[in-house]
Automatic annotation (TrEMBL):
Function, as annotated: Hydrolysis of 6-phosphogluconolactone to 6-phosphogluconate.
Name of the molecule in the record: 6-phosphogluconolactonase
Domain of life: Bacteria
MF terms in GO: 6-phosphogluconolactonase activity
NCBIfam families in UniProt: pgl (TIGR01198)
Pfam families assigned to the protein according to its UniProt record, in alphabetical order: Glucosamine_iso
Keyword annotations: Hydrolase
Biological process annotations from GO: carbohydrate metabolic process; pentose-phosphate shunt
Main enzyme class: hydrolase
Organism: Amycolatopsis arida
Amino acid sequence: MSRTEVVVYATPRLLAAAAAARLVTRLVDLQAAKGSASLVLTGGGTGIAMLEQLRDSPARDAIDWRRLDVYWGDERFVPGGDPERNEKQAREALLDHVPVDPDRVHAMAPSDGEFGADPDAAAAAYAAVLAAHARPEDHGDVPTFDILLLGLGGEGHTASIFPESPSVYETERSVVAVRHSPKPPPTRISLTLPAIRQAAEVWLAASGEGKADAVALALAGAGEVQLPVAGARGQRRTLWLLDRAAAGKLQRVYQPPLA
Ligand SMILES: O=C(O)[C@H](O)[C@@H](O)[C@H](O)[C@H](O)COP(=O)(O)O
């Protein structure tokens, strides 16, 4: 049975720092329990800020970076050196500063990579990577990710799944190409909601009043077609990490710690 938790922090900086601290603790516990851990990264300012805080955390190297499997929830389908790439931003924010095992970092292909400018081929290839790393106990072609990080947009997108877009209706494939994304750049690759729901824990991080409506609607039970982030649930845990502004329209009072 999955549980939903909401934690509110006074400011975006506290949110990013506390989320990083949570990641250290949770990843260390997972590695102690089963020898390795898997983490799915997200793009966007909130997600990258968490990685920067993790990079600067004094407890950072309690994580055994060589026993961490890193994936992405979505990627902008642009050339590998493009500053818009989630992978490039994640490497600059964290991965280039810690001794991860390169063979355990699974990036989605860029538009100047082996699949050229074909996002469908790149999406299919990433689905094959996921299938290759799924184990029998995962009961399908997507690994049971330990922690899957997500941001969300003010209109309710998450990863690169946008309201009433073809990707939100996908029930078979784990990874799809996204075209005409309302959020630039226009072409992307994204895990689908069924793949996201394969994760043991989904952590949703949001800051700013622009996200408050989407947060409140999702927690009030909105449908995933109109509000894809409402469909982003972990098998065991869905953790909302919010700043006070993003939590501003929640009916229940979640006591933000004093600033
Ligand atoms: O590649 C992307 O753009 C992200 O995956 C996207 O889903 C992002 O997480 C949200 O749009 C929130 O972005 P901000 O944190 O910058 O608001």
